[in-house]
Every structure is written in structure tokens, then in C-alpha cells.
Amino acid sequence: MLIGLFDFTVNCICWVSCILIMAELAFSVFGRLTEHVVDPILRQFKYLLCYKSNIKNLTNELEILENKKTEVQAMVDTAKRNAEVIRPLVSAWLQKVDDLNKQTDEVLKGAAISEMQCLFLRCPNLKTRYLLGRKATKKTVVTVKLQAEGSFERVGYPTPPVLMPNQSSHQDFYGFETRITTKKEILEALKDKDIYIIGICGMPGVGKTTMANEVATQVKDEKLFDEVAMAVVSHDPDIIKIQDQLAEKLHLKIEEKTESGRAQRLYARLTYDNKRILLILDDVWKEIDLGTIGIPSKDDCEGLKVLFTTRNEDVCIDMGVQRKFEVEVLSQEEAQKLFERAADISNYTINVVNSTAHEVANECGGLPLALVTVGKALKNKMPHKWRDALQQLQRSRVTNLRGMHDLVYSRIELSYNYLETDEARSLLLLCSIFAEKQSMPIERLVRYARGLELFQNTDTLSETRDRVYSIVDDLKRCYLLLSGEEEDEEVKLHDVVRGFCLLDRPGYLVKHADLEEWPKDNNESYIAISMTFGVLDELPSGLKYGHLKLLQVRCDSGEQNISQEFFNDMQELRVLEFNWMNVQIPLSIQLLTRLQTLCLDYCDLMFDISMIGSLKKLEILTFYHSYLYVDFPTKIAELSNLKLLDLRFWTGPCPIPPGVLLGMKKLEELYFGEYFETRDEEKGYIIKEISSLTALNTFQISTDDTQFLMQILQVLCVENLKRYEITMAEKKGLSTGDYHVTRRLDILDGMDAGTLLQCGFNPLMRTAYQLYIVKATAWKKLVSGSDKDGFFNLKKLRLSSGDFEYIIDASYSIPSGTFCNLELLKLEGLHNLIQICNGNLPRMEHFGSQLFHNLTTLDIYNCDAIRSLFRESVAKCMMNLQRLDISKCPRLEEVVSTDTQENLVAEMLGFPKLKKVTLQFLSIFKSFTSESNKVDDCQSLFNQVTLPNMEMLDIFQLDCIVKLLGEEEMPITSLSKIRVITVGSCGNLRTIAKSDSIKLLQNLEGLVVSDCAKAEVLFDLEGLKVNNYDAEIKILGRLNSLEMSALPKLMHITRMVPKGICVFQNLKSLVAKECGGLRYLFSLSMVSSLVALETVRVQSCDAMEAIVGSEDETWELEKLEFPKLKDVNLEHLSSFKSFRSKLDSVNVLGTLFNRVRLANLEVLDINGLGDVSVLFDFEGISVSEGYVESLLGRLRSLKLERLPKLVNITRMVPEGIHVMQNLTSLIVLDCSNLRYLFSPSMANLLVALETLEVYECQEMEEIVGREKEGTSDIDMVKEGMPRRIVFPKLSSLELLSLDRFRMFCSQNYELVFPSLHKLVILYCPLMTKFCSGHLNAPELKQIQIGEGQYVDISNFFDDSGLQEEE
């Protein structure tokens, strides 16, 4: 059979061969016809006849392709390691190769099977071979094609540069509120289409670059810009380097060589397609021409915005920023948190480290870079290292703290070196001699600088002052100096900057740590010494300070004895200041022939000071707030070079002898202090000598003698005064003047208009910066059209108890520039005042909006007649108003009234910078502004007005207000920044906000509402528009504190909360007192939102039934959870049933906490809940066998008072449950139905209990009762085996007025109290023994049995009840 099959195969092959020969003959015969007819047929036969060669060819080509793929894949792997993006063509080729391999595997596997059939002498399937040969041929063609396509020069291209996430910012300090707020404001500015360039400024190390990186990341995440590019400019900008950095981020290849050519290329890239591009220029030190870089202007590229950071505020001005943002130091709380993270001190348990850490963090002054650097340097260090670091920081001599110089001081050093003049550097170093965190009066720096001759070409003291103020401004704009407590007149030096200034300054001896003796260090090279002593008895002799130029000494107590030779070796001294000292200056002071500034301020001067007259070069002499116990010497007249004389003694006027002032021809500044009851003979020569002071430009006096003052003003040449402080006051001691003097006139004694408008006072009023007038009679209008000027220079105006009807009468016209610089306006007790401004401002087209343009504070108090403050036209000028305070104006109805001009269309009125509004005791006040033709008794407080920056609102006793925010449509930004609202005694108020107006309170953090008799609901959400019910919408999402009191009709905190609305998700504290109509605080639907709630206090709410109730019967939760609730206080709630309402089981009625999880509860105080019988019910809770679960594990304090139905503190505690193991204090008072406190098993869990007090519980029989079967996690002990209950930390136990109390525990347990040292037992008549079992209380020696009565422990109980174990 096999032979027959073989013969058949051979015959077939022969026939095929014959056919091929015939085909070839036919081809030669028929030519082209054969090519088209025979070739396809021939090709089909070749698939069969050339089957093996086809398979072999495919195999060979596949091997070549596989080698090619290996090479390409290696190139791809290399490219990926280089962070390159693989070209799509390459990825597609590799995919095609993989697909081909899968397809050819099928062909080769088929060929292999066919060969196996031949191997076993089976007849091959010709059809199969034909098909395999055909596939092999076709796949070979594809393989060869892929080989050709796989020749790649490069398989990838560089990844587009991306802004790396700023990891340190997320981990360190950019989660803090101050940073979040600043970043949000920057983002809002970037969204503004009208803003092109924005500046971020701040001191070195404050986090400007980090802020810029945060902004860059945010805008990329939010897709605000298509591209973001960042470049570092630095103090020595390299244009080409900046261009390269930007080009790299923009994937731009710049081949041009010249700056201009490269700029053109970058310009073309930035303007191409008008994409939204944000360019960030970091660390800009001076103005840089953006055009030289290639950055187009706003007009050339609308989608482009520029953001830069700088440590110099002047750069913002020079660069023409449209918005400037200052990154300030962190708040104390934020600084502490950042430092704790950096130092990882949370793991420390050593008290000295924790306490020192707080002080170390404070020394860093809230500067993030310093906090992180110091924190990391001290991480995991021993306590002595912390103490050493604190000492270094406090002394501003940081020499051994890793990273402080390289990372912190080096940045400040750059700013210091970059200062333009040596004068600026010298003044900054001068600031460093003052005590840490001290606000320094700039006037003090003026006096020091003059004495030290820091400046060239300043001939007069006035010129020196101008130079000091100019340099101070420069240093503040560089953030090397900060504003002090009085922003314009005082400065501070940041602790870290101060540390840099004193670093490696051997010529400075600065110690302000309450020293008690003069330092032993007698370094002759000192040029400046500044020290503060707590107690100092003597200034020693033998000090050799031959180069010393400045000496500043302060002593807070003691009587300082100065050796006669103290000044012998200080001949170079130029500035000498003694503060708060009781001194007798020695004669050796006369050796200080170069001394130019002598300040004896806040001192007791009980010595002859005539020797001061020998200091011929002295230019500045001050006795500010000192006590003078001797006569003022005439020898002072010899100080012919004196330019400043300050006689503002704390003891009052200093009687100046005749002739003293005559010799002081160069005197520029004279401060008289208080000058009362001047004798007539004194008046004459004082006036005469003042008239001789032709160089005088600064004058201060306080007197009650109008005639005397008028005579002085007549001879003074008031027009030449640059600065003055003149006070008319009838009472002594009202004022000795501020340390700094500007231009201030106070008329406190009452004066008629005629006198005030005379030539003496009128010029002062017109040029004053501060004006305070009390009881100005017969003066109806402060400014009117007849005036020549309108108080152009005035910054602060205070009017009290006068006859004014209008401050401004604009009926016809008023002077140009009226009150254009006024910052503060305070009006009080002006009972005739009708309005601030009479008339409509728009009538004065030439005047424009200068009136009140700089007003920031407006305070109106006790003005009986005023109905509205001003008209719309005036209100529109107050674009910078920040604080508005109105109180006790009984006729006031509104703040802004509608202009009376015809054809005016009502429009929304805006106060864009108003931050705080206080409205109090305004009985008929209706609204902030209202339309004159509209009468609406229910209009809201804020209508037709937007207050986009208001942060605080305080209203009290506004009887006509029905709601703060109504249903009127207002812009979403109109109240978007309000943080705190306080409402009190508004008798008609019914609600805080309704409907969509609640959305305006998106940033509200605190709300206090009290004594509002008609308030029914705080937030009424009925009608609130919700567009998407599936998305969670957050309302009042930042509110963290809510306090309500004396609201008898309050029914709901929130009402009609729609589905999909999440409220109060950040609420931390809620207090409700005397809210008689409130049945519950929260609905069940709100519970899931209360994830941040920490404190709940409810007191005297008679209708309160539960904390959690339900508006919707369909809502039901099996278990309520308050994950962060720590403190619960419930007092005097007569209707209270349970923490949650609608409990179905009869068994749990009267249970305070049932199916409520309080994992973090720490303090629980329950008082006066009449229906509560069980505090905690654990029925239904189970634990797997072998496991233990802790409940109420963080509870530290539990106080139960006046609970008449209370039977159990805990009920049904199952096995495996541990409760209250951290309870430290338990107080139980007047719980008349309570028979015992704990079961034995629970008592053994109270391992942390320190204090136990039980008072006036009539049914109380014992503290530890009997175990209930099935609820103990301690196996029942067999009879005769010892049993113990241990209270390891209980130190104080008090049992008072317990009528039925018999003993602590009646069962046969051994009671162990290793820490008990206080035991008080009073009025327990049935108690005969302490316990039935053994008592072990080694620390207990005596027992208190009465007020001041104690007995020895061995005599109190009978022997059977009390035993002691040594």
C-alpha cells in the first residue's frame, strides 16, 4: 500500500513537470499574452513546488529582521533612559514587527507539522503545503520591507521640559493659610485679562521662589495656560542665559548668536498662534528690559503674562507691575508647625527639647528658610545641642549650626552687598545694636546718625532726617528692614537679618539679656556698645575703649554708681545714651570733646548737669520722659552748636532760666513738653528768646494758656515750621508729645471759630497732618466754597463736641484737593451734624474724585441728628475705605443715600477695600444703602452694595434689621472674603441669610449670634439653586466656629438643605445657649459632613431633644460617627432624650449615646438631663474571638451632674471591649438613682484614673458593683482564689454626702491603690469599712473626715475592713 502511494506521488510530480514544460513552450509561443495568463498560474505552482525554499527564505529574512529589531529596541531603551520621547514611527515599526512575528509563527509551526508528517512516511497534504508556501512568500516580502523601514538615525526626541512639582513646598509650608490665600490671589490676578505683569516680593528666604513654583504647578494643573516657562535672572543678569532657559522650556532651538537676533527668535515663538503663555522670571534684582530678552508687550501678545519675584519693592515699581503681592513671614502658629516638621520633634518625649523647640522657632522670626534650616540641623540631636543653638540664636552669634551661613546668611549677604551706598549699609548695621524684636523709632536713628556723622553733605539736622527716612524706605523696600509697631515712624530688624548684621562684627558689643554686671571683655577695638542690664550697681572704671563711638546703656532697676574715671578712655565717643537709669554722671564726661549726641531719656536726674555745658560740639541733647530733681543750669546756654533740645520731662515743665536759648542760634528743633501755669515774667523772656531762634523748623509745646500760645505763634514764623506738635489742653499731664513729631494740632480746651481762624492757628490747621478739635463753637462747616484750600495735607481729623452741621458744604463748590490725603476721620458727639458732605459731588466736575480718595478709617459716634453719612457721589470717592465704625446714632437710617439729581439710574455701589464694618446702637437703621423711592420693611442689611474684601462684620442692637442677606441677586464676589460675623441684640432679626445669598458666605469662618428675640433660622436654604444633584456642592464650607445664645425662637440652624448639598464640613466648634425653640442641632442628612467637629456645647435649651434629629423621615443611619469630636458639654436640657433621635428600640430609650461612635472623645460634661438613664450602651457590639477593641479610649475627663434617672454609666459591655482606659478624672454629683459606678471588669480597665469624686448620690451603695454575667472579659474566678482590682494612678478619692454608701467594694476583691495619698470621706453614715477584701494603699497615711479634720488611717476603720501592707 505504501509502495502504491509512493508511485502515485511520483506520477503527480511528473505530470506537474510536464505541465511546466508545456507552459514554458506556450510562453515562448504566445509572448505577452502568456505573461498575463501563465505567470499567475506558474506562481501558484511555485508556492507548492518551492515550498521548502520559501520557508527557508522566510526564516532567513526573519532572522535579519529580528537582529534589526534588537538594534532598534536597544536604541529605544537608550532613548528612554535619556528621558526622550519615542518617535511614533519607531513605536509603530516595532509594533508591526511584533505583529509579523505572531503571524509568521503560525506559518513556521505549520511547516514543522508538515515535516513531521513526512518523517513518519505520511503523505504530505499538498493543499497545506501550497498554502504555507504562499503565506511564507508573502510574509517574506513584508519582512524585507520592514527591514528597509527599520533604518532609523534617531528613535526619539528630547522630552518637553516640564515644571517639576515643588516637593518641599507641599511637605513644608505651602499648606498654611497665609500661603494658600496669597497663592489664590495671585491665581485670580493671572485670570484677569487686563493684567499683564505681576510681581511677587518679600525678604530673602521668605519663600518667593517656592510661591512662584506653586503658582506654575497650579496653572498647569488647572490648564490656565498652554505653556509655562521659568528662568532665573539673579543679581547679575545674563540675557543669553535667560533666553536659553526660556527657550528650553518652550522647546525652542535658538541658533542666532547675537542677543538681538536671539530676542527676535524668542519673540516670534511667543507671538506665534497667540497661545496662552506664562513666563516666570525668578530673582529679579533690578529693572530689566523685557524687550531685550525677546518678551513681547501686552499689545503684541494678548495671551502672554509675566510673573516675577524680587527682594526689592522698587523693582515692582520700575517694571510697572499691575499687581504686587508680598510674601510675608509665617504666623507664629504656622512657624511652629513648620519647625516641628523640619526637626521631626513629634517623636521626642524629652520635655526640655519640646520646650526649647518653641523658643528656637521663635528666634527664626517666621522666616521659612531659617525655620527649615535650623530644624534640619537639630533633627535627632541631643538636648544640649538644642540649648546651645538657642543660646547662639538669642545672642545673634550663630557659629555652629549646620547650613545657617551657607543657606540663610548668604542670601541676606547678597542683599546687603547689593545696597547702593555705604550709608545704607552703615544705617542697617546701626539698627542691629538695638534689642531683638524691638521697634526702633526712626527719629532715634536720626539722632544717632547725626552724632556718628554717617552721611556726607548733610549740613542741617533736617537734611540728616530726610536722608535717614530715604534710606529707611530703601531698606524696607529691600526687605532688610520691616515696619515697626507704628508703621510710618518705627522700624524693626528681622531676627535673622539682625543675626547676619552682628555676625563677624568684632567691633560691636551687643548684649540685651538682662545683664547684672559689666562684661569682663575689655576689647579696645569696640566701636559700638549697646547693652541692657536687669540690675546694675556700678559702671566700672578702667575701661579702655579708645575707638568707641557709640555707647548705649539701659538698666531696668537699681541705682547706678558711675565711677569718676568711667569716660577717661572714651575720647572718640560721638553718641551717648542712658535709658531708664538712676544716674549721677561723673565729671569725666567733660573729656568727651567729640560727643555730638547725648540722650538721657527715661532717667532719674538727681545731679548737677551743668557739666554738660562744656560739651562744645554737642548738637543733640534730649531728656525725653526723664525726671529732673535739680534746677536747669544756665551753663547749657554755652552749647552754641546745639541743633536739637528736647525738654519733654516726665515731671512737667522745666523752668528755663533767662538767656539759655539766646546762645543757641543754630537750634533747629525745640521740644518744650508741657508748659502750664507759666509766670508772667517767664512768658516775656521765653517769647523773646524763641523769636531769636531763626533756624527753628520744629517746635513742640503743650499749654493751657491760649494767650501765651498765640504770642509764641506770632513770633515763630509758623510758615517756616516743617514739623510741629502744639496742644491746647486745660488739664495737666495730657501729653508730653510723641517721640516723633510730624505736624499735629490739638485744640482740646474748646475754642470759638473766630479764634481758630486767626492768623496764628489757621495756618497750622491748613498745613497739619493731624488735627483734633474739641468743642469748636459757632463753626458750622469745616470746609465750604469760600475757603482757599481744603486741608490738602491733613491725614487724620478728629472732631468732638462741636457745633458742626456739615464737615463739607458742597452746595456750590469747594477747594480743589479737599481732604484728598485724609486717611482717618473720627466724628464724636457732634449733635448738630446733619451729613458729612452737603450737596452732590458730581456738580464739581473740576474736583473729580480726589475727595476722601485716601480715606481708610471712618468712625462716627454719638451723632444724634445724622440720618445718612453721605450721598452716592461722595461714597464713590471712597475707594480705599477699609474700616467703618458707626455707633449710637439714633436717627441714622442708612450709610449711603441716593443722590437727588434727576435721571440717575440706580447702580451697584462698591467699596472695594472695606475690610471691617461695625454698626452698633442704631435703633432705626434699615440698610447699608437704599433707593430713595422704595420703602421695604424687609430689605436686607446689604443691598445694592458690594464689599468684595470685607472680612469682619460686627452688628449690635440694630432693631430694624430683619435679615443680613436676603434673596436679592448680588455678585458672587460681593461678600466673598468675609470671615467673621458677630450679631447681637437685633430684636427683629429673623435670619442671617436666605436662598442663594448663602453662597456669598463661601469664606465665612466664625459666626456669633446672640440675644435676637425673633430669630427663627440662621441659614434658610429654601429656594437655593442646585444645578447638578449628582455633584456634591459645599455650602458654608469654611465655617469652623458657630456660637448661638439667647435666641428663644430659633427653630433651625439650617433649614431645607437640598439633596446634594454638603454643609459645615469644616465646622470645629458649636455652642448653643438659651435657644429655647431648638429641638436638635443637626439633621441626619448633615452628619456625614461633620467630619471636622471637635467641640459641642449645649446649655439651657429647654426644647432640645437630641443633637442629631431628622427633617426627612426617610433618612436613617444605623450608626453615627463623629471622627474628631473631642469635647461634649450638655447642661440643663430638660427635654433631652438622646444624642440622636428616633431610636426604634424601647430598650434604648433614655440612653444618651447609642449607636454613636466617638473615637476621639476626650472631655464629657453632662449636667441636668432629666431623662437620661444610661450614658453609653454597647448592646449589639461584638468582637471576634481572641481580639480586643478599645472604645472611648481617649476619654480623659468625665463629669456627671444632676442626672436623676441615671442608672448605668455603661451598659452591656461585651467581652473583648475595653472602655475608658485613659480616663484620668471622674466626677459624679447628685445622680440620685445611681447605685454603683463600675463593674469589677471595667474597674480593672481604669489604669489611668487619677481623680475620683462622688457627691450627693442618695442611692449610691458602692463604687465597684457586681459583674453581670456575659459582659465580663475576665473569667469568673473560682471561690477561694485571690482576686484583685488595681487603680495604679488613682491619687485622690473623695466621697461626700452618700446616705446609703456602705463601702468601696462589697465583694471579696483585693483593692490596690499604689498612688493614693488623698482620701476624703464625709457624711457617709452607713459606711463602716472601706472594703470586704484586702486593701493595699502604701501612700495613704491619713483620711479627711471634716473641714480641717484628719485621722490616722489605722484608727478610721475596724481591723476587718482595713489592712495595710508595707
UniProtKB/TrEMBL annotation:
Record keywords: ATP-binding, Coiled coil, Leucine-rich repeat, Nucleotide-binding, Plant defense, Repeat
InterPro entries: AAA+_ATPase, Apaf_helical, At4g27190-like_LRR, LRR_dom_sf, NB-ARC, P-loop_NTPase, Plant_NBS-LRR, WH-like_DNA-bd_sf
GO biological process: defense response
Residue ranges annotated for the AAA+ ATPase domain, each copy included: 194-331
GO MF term set: ADP binding; ATP binding
Record-linked SMART domains: AAA (SM00382)
One Pfam entry name: NB-ARC
Recorded coiled-coil stretches: 48-82
Family: Belongs to the disease resistance NB-LRR family.
Identification of the protein by name: Disease resistance At4g27190-like
Phylogenetic classification of the source organism: Eukaryota, Viridiplantae, Streptophyta, Embryophyta, Tracheophyta
